[in-house]
Write a structure and sequence with these properties.
mainly alpha
Amino acid sequence: ALETPAVMRDEPQYERIPHETPLPPALSYSDELPPIRNQGSRGSCVAHAAAAVREFMEIQRLKHNPDFKPNSVDFSEQYIYWWCKEQDGLPDVDGTYPYLGIQCLAEAGVAQEKTWAYNPHPRPGDEGQGPPPPGAPTGLPPARTPVLPPLNGDA
C-alpha cells in the first residue's frame, strides 16, 4: 500500500478571525426549508437534493416579500434528473453524480414542478424519462441559480 503523503497527514492550520462574533446557542431553518419529497423507487436523490437547495435559495430570496407563499416554490426534480442523465454518460444506470445536480442549476437552471412533474416510478430502458414534455424548458429555464463564491477562500 502507498503511504499517505506528509502534506495530507499534517494538521491543517487555521487562522483566527480578527473580529469574532459569538454564535447563537441554536439556529434552525426548519421553518424555511422546502417540504420533504419522496423519490420513490428511482435513484434520483441527487436531483431531489439539488432541487431542495435551489428551493431554499429561492425561499431566502423571497421570504421578505409580503405576498410570498413558501409553498409556491416547487422546482422539477424530474427536469434536474433528466438533465443529469443526459450529461453523465450512464443513461441506463440508476443514479447520477452529485456535482451534476449543482451544475444543472448553474448552467441550465430548473423548470417548475408544474411544468414537468416528477414520476417516482422507474421506466425500464428510460432512466432519465425524457425528453421533456412539450412546453417544458429545454434551453434556459426560467429559474436560474446565481454563481456562488468558492468556499475555500480562493478566487
